[in-house]
Amino acid sequence: METSTTFPGNTGIRPQSITPMAEVLRQNGFSTAAFGKYHETPPWEISVSGSLDRWPTHSGFDKFYGFIGGETNQWAPLIYDGVTQVETPRDPNYHFTTDMTNNAISWVRFQQALTPDKPFFIYFAPGACHAPHHVPKAWAQKYQGKFDYGWDKLREETLERQKQLGIVPPNTRLAPKPTDIKDWESLSADEKKMFARQMEVYAGFAEHTDHEVGRLFSSIEELGEMDNTLFLYVVGDNGASAEGQMNGLYNEMTYFNGVPETLADMLKHYDEWGSASTYPHFAAGWAVATNAPFAWTKQVASDFGGTRNGMVVHWPAGIKSKGEVRSQFTHVIDIAPTVLEATKIPPPGMVNGIEQDPIEGTSFLYSFDDATAKERHTVQYFEMFGNRAIYSDGWYARTIHRAAWNQKPYQPLSEDKWELFNSNEDFSLANDVASENSDKLTELENLFMTNAERYHVLPIDDRLLERTDAKTVGRPTLMEGRSSVTLGEGMKGMGIDIFISMRNTSYTISADVEVSAGGNGVIVCQGGRFGGFSLYIKGGKPAFTYNFLGLEQYTIAASRALKPGRHTIVYDFKYDGGGLGKGGNGTIMVDGKHSGDGRIGKTQAGIFSVDDLADVGTDDGTWVANYGGAAKFNGKLAKVTIEVRE
Question: Which of 88, 118, 363, 381 suits 641 as a labelling partner, its CA being 20 to 30 A distant?
Answer without folding.
Answer: 88
